[in-house]
Amino acid sequence: VVLCLCKCCFWCLEKFMKFINRNAYIFTAIYGSNFCKSAKESFSLILRNMVRVAVLDKVTDFLLFLGKIVITSTVALCSFWYFSGGLSENVPLDLAEPKLNYYFVPVIVISIGAYFIASCFFSVYAMAVDTLFLASWWTWRR
């Protein structure tokens, strides 16, 4: 029980430190101050705007998740259409049509790969959103 409690506390501490480090790096990149000062300023700025940060974080997470789902489902449908032979009937292209008995395995593998690639790209967008809002909150504060 104690070990499970310690594990939970360390997990929370790790998430908190990652959050502080990310915002401190953003603050350092924007204003060129040292890391400790940036960590203090970004933490105090986030603490003063706790509700805004929570709403922004959840809305951004939801929209980025929707983007990942749309991209993954589009790639899955297109790959299903290609592997099932529907592409050669509707599009006049000279593509080699694969002859597969069971085409769900490649579709699933391609979909998983598309989700991971979309996650990598959208993590850049999440960082950009955090940077924009930290900069704008700092400007509003002044």
Shape: elongated
Number of strands: 0
In terms of DSSP E residues, the strand content is: under 5%
Oligomer state equals: single chain
Number of H- or I-type helical stretches: 5
Poorly predicted runs are none
Residue-averaged pLDDT: 86
Radius of gyration over C-alpha positions, nearest whole angstrom: 22 Å
Described by strand count, sense and barrel closure, the largest sheet is: none
Helical residue percent band: over 70%
Structural class: mainly alpha
> What are the secondary-structure elements, in order, as H or E?
HHHHH
Distance between the termini: 48 Å
Q: What do you see in this structure?
A:
The chain has 142 residues and is mainly α. Helix content is 85%, strand content 0%. The chain contains five helices and no strands. The protein has helices spanning 2-31, 35-48, 50-83, 86-90, 104-141. The protein is elongated, with a radius of gyration of 22 Å.
What would the keywords be for this entry?
single chain, 142 residues, mainly alpha, 5 helices, 0% strand, elongated
